[in-house]
């Protein structure tokens, strides 16, 4: 059972300089997320460098996360495998080792038809009992989950949420108008995070939250409390940072931001490499400017007492 709402960080995977999992820094980051008030932890997404992780490493990350969160929030693992068979195996193993939910991408190496995509998602959903969030990102993955496709997918009771990353925030409303509470809608694009929440998104699968958890959760809580102007002031400060998420080097960018806030390292796994030259200086400039002007946050965990 997952309550699909709030901020759920798509966390980065921490590596040592020897290219091993850095579970010490990973724990430090996850604890920072929990302290900020996030509602779930999503492992092994694009930001988590899923394509470079072994099955064993994914299992270690699930078990480590479960130990850290101690049941406070659900641990969700991303499914982005090369075949339906492999996706089912990873999903079933995730359930076996204790993951509480799945986020599932469409087929990753083949531009499937609508029928093939629905069949793929259903096959995974029917192989486990875990609650599932479908990831809808046609910009990056070239496959769109349409309203009609979602109608079919909701025949599977454990498909319960969608990460809406089409860049069209009116899709939040379209999905809600069509399916009501049967489908929870999350925004998946950092630079449309606040806008999507204002029009009614249930939650935010976020990226820069990896480095700035409190600011991200504060925006969510302020919007949900109707305190739009206060949320907007934080969001205006945040936007140059959030733009680091909509970039092919988003992993390197966000890891640099994690270094600045003391809850991560710069180590990425090849073929990714740390940023170089002018682009590195540009990103560091954005982060440095943000750190110098970091906002003082309201007591966003107790907004009722402030209203």
TrEMBL record:
<feature type="active site" description="Schiff-base intermediate with substrate">
    <location>
        <position position="163"/>
    </location>
</feature>
<comment type="similarity">
    <text>Belongs to the DapA family.</text>
</comment>
<dbReference type="GO" id="GO:0008840">
    <property type="term" value="F:4-hydroxy-tetrahydrodipicolinate synthase activity"/>
</dbReference>
<feature type="binding site">
    <location>
        <position position="205"/>
    </location>
    <ligand>
        <name>pyruvate</name>
    </ligand>
</feature>
<feature type="active site" description="Proton donor/acceptor">
    <location>
        <position position="135"/>
    </location>
</feature>
<dbReference type="InterPro" id="IPR013785">
    <property type="entry name" value="Aldolase_TIM"/>
</dbReference>
<dbReference type="Pfam" id="PF00701">
    <property type="entry name" value="DHDPS"/>
</dbReference>
<protein>
    <submittedName>
        <fullName>4-hydroxy-tetrahydrodipicolinate synthase</fullName>
    </submittedName>
</protein>
<dbReference type="InterPro" id="IPR002220">
    <property type="entry name" value="DapA-like"/>
</dbReference>
<keyword id="KW-0456">Lyase</keyword>
